[in-house]
Amino acid sequence: MGFTFHIGELRVFFPYDTIYPEQYRYMCELKRALDAKGNSVLEMPTGTGKTVTLFSLITSYQWAHPELGRLVYCTRTVPEMSKAVEELRKVIDFRVEVLAKELDAGSEAPKGLAAGHILAVGLSARRNMCVHPEVSKEGDRERVDEMCRQLTAPWTREKKTASCVHFEKYESALGQQSQLLDTGIYTIEDLRVKGMDKEYGWCPYYAARRLIQASSVVVLNYQYVLDPKVSLASSLGGAPSLPGGKMRAGGLSSIEPSIVVFDEAHNIDDVCIESLSVKLNRQRLDQSSGNLTRLGNEIERVKKEDASRLQEEYKRLVQGLRQAGQIDEAMADQLQSPVLPEDLVSEAIPGNIRRAEHFIALLRRIVNFCRRYLHVERAQCEGPLSICHKLEEDAEVDSKSLKFCHERLRSLLNTLQVSNLEEFTPITKVADFVTLLGTYSQGFTIIVDPYPEAQGIYDPTLILRCLDASIAIRPVLKRYQSVVLTSGTISPLEMYPKILGMSNVVATESFSITMERKCLCPLIVTHGPDQVARIGEDESPSLGFRGCCSMRGSRSSAWAVHQPSSVTLGLVCFFTSYRYLEQVLEKWYETGVISRVLKHKLLFIETADVVATTYALNLYRQACDSGQGAVFLSVARGKVAEGIDFDRHYGRCVVLFGVPFQYTLSRELRARLEFLRQHYDIKESEFLNFDAMRQASQCLGRVIRSKRDYGVMIFADQRYARSDKRSKIPDWIRHFLEPGHVFMASDLAVEAAGNFLLQMSQPFEEKTGVGASVLTPQALQELQAEDSKASDSKEMEKSAIFAPPLKRLKLNLSTPPDPPSSNLDAVSKQIW
C-alpha cells in the first residue's frame, strides 16, 4: 500500500496507492514555499485529502533536511486532532516499511529515528486528557483545572494532604531521566491509555507538555500558539515572550527552522482578535473587589506566618521575566540587588508593584476607576492612549506599570499558594485588561456600552477590543521559518496576508477539484415561480423549502415522490441567524409547510444549547440511516456550520437562506471596519462581503467530503448572482456553476436538482491515466513528464524573445567587415 515519487530532488512518501491531481499540485506549491523559507496561503477542496497531503510532503521534507525543526499542526477541535494524528501515523508507518525493504540483505536494521520513526504527540486541555478516577468524571473544564491544580500544586504535595498518583509517577519518571515514551505517533487517546497502564501510569497532560519539546510533530489547538496567556504554559519551542516583551539575545530573536500549519484557517483572524479581547461588567468588577480583599487578607496572614515567602517572590518574578525574554542576564543580576539605584528607576519592574501590598492597592485603584468609567448613559469609544491618560490623572497609575500586571498577579498567586485559580478569574481579567492597555497603543479600542443585551436593560459593559488580527499572529510569523494557512474555503486568498500582516508570502493558490463527472450542482435561486425576487429575511422561504423538500431521492426524484418512506436523504438548511430561523419556522407552521414535511421526513433544529444540538444531530443521523430521511435546520456561524460533516446520504442537499453578514450595527464591528479602512485601505463593503462569503462557503462545503460523494448546493438569495458575491465563491465550487444556474426560479431549481440526483445515481466507472480524477503511480509519472515539457517550452519561449538580437550580435562579431578604406570621410572613420 502506498508509493514514493519525487518532486524535484525531494522524495515523497505517500501512503496510498493512488493520488489526486490536486494533491500533487498542492505538494508542489507547498514545497516551493518551504524551499524559499516563506509563508503560503493554500486552498484545497474539502474531501480531497488535504491533511495526508500536508503530512506526506512536510515529513518527507523533514527527512530530507534533518536541520529542519518540528512541524506544529494547529487545528480547532479534538476530533480533528485525532483524525490528523491517524493520518500522520499512516504516513510514518509507510515510510518505515519502505526504508526497511530498501536495506541490504544481511545488514543490521536501524532503530528509532534512523529507521524513519518520529515522535509525535497531541496536546489538549486537562478535561480531555485527565485519567484521575475522580477528576476525570467532572464535565466542566474550569472545575477539572481547579481540581487538578489542588492535587499537583507543590505546596499541596509538600503537605501530603492530597496528591495525584499519576502526577507523582510523572515526577518520578523525570527524576530518573526517563524519556517517558519511545518514538511513535500518539493521539490523545493513546496517551490516556498509557496513563492508565501500570507500566507507565504517568499523567497524560503533563507528559504531553513535556514531550512536545522533543517531538518532530505536534498537533494542538490554535490557542496554544496564538493566545499569549495559554502559550506561556505550553512550553512550545521554548519560553514565549510576554505581550510587549523584548526578545532576548540569541533566543527568540533568531528564526526557528520550524513549520507552523493552521488548518481550517478561514476564521483565523477572528481567533486572533478574540484571544486579545477582554470584557468587563459591573458584576465582574464587584467580584474583583472581593478577590482583592481576600488577597490582601492572605498577604497579611502570610507576612505573619512566613515572611520569607514574600521576600523570595520578587526574585522569582525577576527570574520569570528573564526566562520569558523581557530582561537579559545583566539586568536580572542588577535587579537581584535592591540596594542599587538603578533598581529604583528601572522600567523593567516599576517600584509601585514590587511589594505585594502596593500591587494590591494599585489593582484596587484600577477597579474603582473602571467602576466610575462604566457610569455612562450613552455608548462611547476611545483609544488606549486616552484611557491610559485618564488612569494617570484619576487613579494615579503610571502606564508603565500596567504592562506587568498579568505577570505580577500570576507570581503573587503562586506565592500565596492559590490552587483554585478559577475563583480569581475576575481579577485576572482586570489584570489582562490593563496589561493589554499598557502594552499596545494602536490596534485596540475601548467601548463602553450601557445596553449591550437589549434597549432598556441597563448593564454597562467595558470592552477592550482588538482590531488588528496581525498583533496575535505577529510573534508566530517572526519566530518560525514558514507559516502555512490552509482550508477548503479560504477565498479570496489575497485578503488573508493583508489583514494578518503576512510578508514573504511565496505561494497563494486555490486548487480546483478534478472530477470525471459533475458531482457538484451549485444553484443560485433568485426568485420564485411568481418571479418575485428572494432577498434575505424579506423573502418567503416556504416556496424554496417546499421545492427542496421535494428532492427526496438520492437515486431518483420521481421514485422518491411515490415512495418517500424508503428513501434515505439528508437535507440541511442554514439560516443567517437564530432570529431569522425562528421567524421562518413560525411562518412555516402557520402555512402548513411543517406538517407536510413531517409526512415524509423528521425535522431537527439547532439551538444555542450545545448539548441539545448534539442530541439532535445524533437523532438526525439515525433517521437518515433508518431510511426515513430527515431535515436539519441550522444557523451560519454556529457549531454545525463550522465542524460537522454531512457526507454521503447525510447531506445530499444543502440550502443557504440569505447572506450571512455580520450585525453591521455592532460597535465592535464598526470600530474594526474603520481600522481596516485607515490602516489597510480595505473598504467596508469589501470586508463585509469577504466575511459573509467565507461563511457561506463554509456552510455549503459541508455537503461533499470526498470525490465519490455528490450533492446539491443552493444559494437561496438573489444577491449571490451579483459579481461581487459570486467572484468570492471558492474556485472549486464556482467551477461547477453553469451560466444557466445563476438566475433561477425555485421551481426550475427543483427540476435541475432532481435531474442531477437522478444522473448521479447511475453506475459509473473511474478512468485511469492522465486527465483522470485519480492518478496511479504510472499516471503521475506521465503528468510530471507533461509538466516538465510544458516548463521547458515556456523557457524556450522566453529565450526565443532574445534570440534574434543575440544571433545578429554573434554574426557581427564572428564575421567582421573589411577595414575601412582611406578615402572614407571622417564621420565614417569615427563610426568605425
Automatic annotation (TrEMBL):
Residues 821-832 have a biased composition (Polar residues). PROSITE patterns: DEAH_ATP_HELICASE, HELICASE_ATP_BIND_2. The keyword Metal-binding applies. SUPFAM superfamilies: P-loop containing nucleoside triphosphate hydrolases. Its EC number is 5.6.2.3. It is found in: Nucleus. Keywords: 4Fe-4S, ATP-binding, DNA damage, DNA repair, DNA-binding, Helicase, Hydrolase, Iron, Iron-sulfur, Isomerase, Metal-binding, Nucleotide-binding, Nucleus. It catalyses: ATP + H2O = ADP + phosphate + H(+). Residues 9-314 form the Helicase ATP-binding domain. It holds the Pfam family HBB. Its cofactor is [4Fe-4S] cluster. Residues 812-832 are annotated as: Disordered. InterPro entries: ATP-dep_Helicase_C, DinG/Rad3-like, DNA/RNA_helicase_DEAH_CS, HBB, Helic_SF1/SF2_ATP-bd_DinG/Rad3, Helicase-like_DEXD_c2, P-loop_NTPase, RAD3-like_helicase_DEAD. It comes from the Eukaryota. Belongs to the helicase family. RAD3/XPD subfamily. This is DNA 5'-3' helicase. It comes from Durusdinium trenchii.
